[in-house]
Each structure stands twice: as C-alpha cells, then as structure tokens.
Amino acid sequence: MHLESGSEGTSRIEQTQVSLIRGIPDDIALFCLARVPRKYHMVLKCVSRRWRDLVCGEEWRAYRRKHNLDETWIYALCRDNKLERVCCYVLDPNASVRSWKRIPEIPPRALRRKGMGFEVLGKNVYLLGGCGWSEDATREVYCYDASMNKWMDAAPLSTARCYFVCQVVDEKIYAIGGLGLNSSDTHSWDVYDLSTNNWKLHIDSNNVPEIEDSFVMDGKIYIRCCTSAVTSHVYAVVYEPSSGTWQHADADMASGWRGPAVVVDGTLYVLDQSSGTRLMTWKKERREWAPVGRLSSLLTRPPCQLVAIGKSIFVIGKGCSTVVFDVGNAGNTGGVMVSSSIPKLNSSDDVISCKCLTI
C-alpha cells in the first residue's frame, strides 16, 4: 500500500475541502451551478461556506451575465399609510406563480422617513437620504445586498438631501437636487462610484432645484421640474454626465411628460394618469407624442410607477397591483391594451419607486 507524505496528503485534503464539488474542477462546477435559477440561490448558500461565498460574490454575477444566465427581479419601495412607514417588496416576473414578497425590514432609523432616494447598482439596492417631521435631511445611505438578503450601512452622501432624484449612468449613482441643510444643496448633485465606495459633490447654478421625476435615455439624465399651479406648462432639463453639462430639454418632448416614464430600446414611454391610465410614446422623428393604448381601469390602481424588462413594461400601482404588457406586440381590444396582471397585496400601500436588479 502506497502512503503519501504528510505534506502531500494535507495539501490534497485541503484542495478537496475547498473545491466547489468534490472531484470536479471548479470551472466545471461553476458552469453547472450558475445555471441554477435565481429563486434557488438561497438554497445554494446553505450547502457550504464556499458555495455561500460564491453565490454572494461578484464572480457569480459576472459569470451569469457573461453567459446570459442572469435574471431580473423588480424591487418596489412602498409606504404604508396606516402605519406611516416605508417597506420594500420584490417580484420574480418569471415565477410560475408571480407574487410580490416582502424583503427584510429596512433599518429602523429610515422607517418613517420621506423623500428618500431609491436606486439599484450592481447587486445592491440603495436607500438614500430622506427627512422626517422632526428630522432634518440626512446623508445616511443604506444598502440591501440582494445576494445576502440583508441591509447594511453604506457610504453616506456628500451632503444631506431629501426629495431628490436618483439615476444610474455608466455604473455610477447620481443623486440630484432636492432639499438639504444649505440653500446651495438644491443646485448640487452627488455621484457615487462603486469602485471607490465614495461620493463626489458637484455644484452648478444651472441645475434646476424644483424637481419631480427623471429617466435616463441615450446616456443622459432627463429631469422634469415642478409645474406652475397657474399654467400646465411642463419644464425639463437634461444632464449629460460625459461632459458634466446641463441644458434645456426639447420643449415638445417635455410637454407630454405628464407621468411616470420608462425607456424601452431607446424609445420613451409615459403613463398619463390624468384621466384613467393611458400609455403614450414619444416619436423623436416627428417630434410628437402618440397614444399606444389605454389600460383597463379594472386592473390599474393609480398612482402607478413604471419599470421595463426587455420589451415588457410593468405598471405597478397601489398595493403593488401590477399590469404587464409587451410593447413589441402591443395589441388592443376596443382601444384597451391586451395585458396580463399580477395579484395585488392585501394592502393599499403607495408605490414610491420601482427598480430592476439583475443577478
């Protein structure tokens, strides 16, 4: 019988212990494990510490993205008006039985805040700033790691702010405008770089402070400003991160931006909720807005928010009531768009913001 030397035997035992799957090279094991649907990732993490570290790591997300295995889930920030506190829900749009599920409760210090930013970067959901009746605007930022399923403290904003807009461009979070502790804060914006885990403050007097909504199109951040109580005029500005410059948005485009907006394949869609719910699209070539169709009043519960996955637009209203339709095949019957729906929660929570996170 052949006996291995002590050092060789120890080395081989250690190699077996740290292998993802005993007897299989790690690259083959990753090839197999990465094809497990996202809904089972919580189970994978329970197998071993090595599997947990893999599923929670950036290598896992990068591998699934590279091989088109990643899956997109929707996260919604809501406000429970009865308890006067915020909460978060998640939806797997590809589940056989689609339903919204509550994620772990957000940190207690942020539960009753208003005017918070809500954004997604990488595998994290960020909850930024905010204020309360007896609390000034804050710099605090919390991060929900979707792989680890828990909230953590994150790098604070450069300056305190609330009632601002958040968008992501080129893997950076932009927190723009809003109210702060100083008058100059309304003309400022923070930029978060994940690689350095740091925020950088920018100030420009051309940045319009009174903001209501935003979206990203063609690498630029479009911001809708507060409308006058006297006129129905809609005013919008555009920020171009590559040059750091502000300019006025196309007036014809801004005129029809009267609700939540989403961009699908470079085309802008807006949900007009002034009378029922009607989807509009901006025709850049003709510089005009055109109706896509109405949504059934039996399915939608305004006020709603919009998110898109591929060519599917999700209209999410009170209680996370959700209507889904494909803009690539937007048929309608009697002027009402053909769609599917996802059951609402047993609540009337207002949906503040919705974002998509892909792993």
Automatic annotation (TrEMBL):
It comes from the Eukaryota. SMART domains: FBOX, Kelch. SUPFAM superfamilies: F-box domain, Kelch motif. It holds the Pfam family F-box. InterPro entries: F-box-like_dom_sf, F-box_dom, Kelch-typ_b-propeller, Kelch_1, Kelch_FKB95. PANTHER family: F-BOX DOMAIN-CONTAINING PROTEIN, OS02G0202900 PROTEIN. This is F-box domain-containing protein. It comes from Acer yangbiense.
